[in-house]
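Hi everyone,

Forwarding the result from last night's run.
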Amino acid sequence: PAQEHAVVDWLAIAGGPLPVAVVLKLSGREDDETVIRLCARGVCDRRGDSVDFRHPLARDVAFAAIRPEDRVRMHRELGEHLAQTSLARGLSAAIVARHLARGESYDRAAQFYFEAASAARESHQTQLVIRYYRRALSYLAPDDKSAVDGHEALESAYRMLGRRRER
């Protein structure tokens, strides 16, 4: 049914478990009857307040079945929703940034990658600092002023690791 299809699509876009309330909000449902039916058939599992696919292969098949233009729209919507939650702060901001980038909202994705990189820098996770700053810089326009701060932080991380060539 279309209602179950919508839930499956949102779970596939998320790439992992989502709270039932979020799935219902994104899919436009008011009750969790569709989630209950999917769990009863063995497509999904409900653990606590979250729901996810029972098998990763089912997620991959469901994701591949979504039209490319719908994927972009859905990633953007999920990213915008997650930006309103606690996931938008700290290292988990990279999750929000990934959805926004896949949703072709590159400026917002760069902001969240900068947030994740700053959190990684504060917790001395240098490899994550480099990864997130590089991703943020790849989404910025060449004349964006925040790129200077990103390059400076990236140079500092390379200096800490003793990588002269990358500096």
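The chain is about 65% helix and 5% strand.

Cheers,
N.
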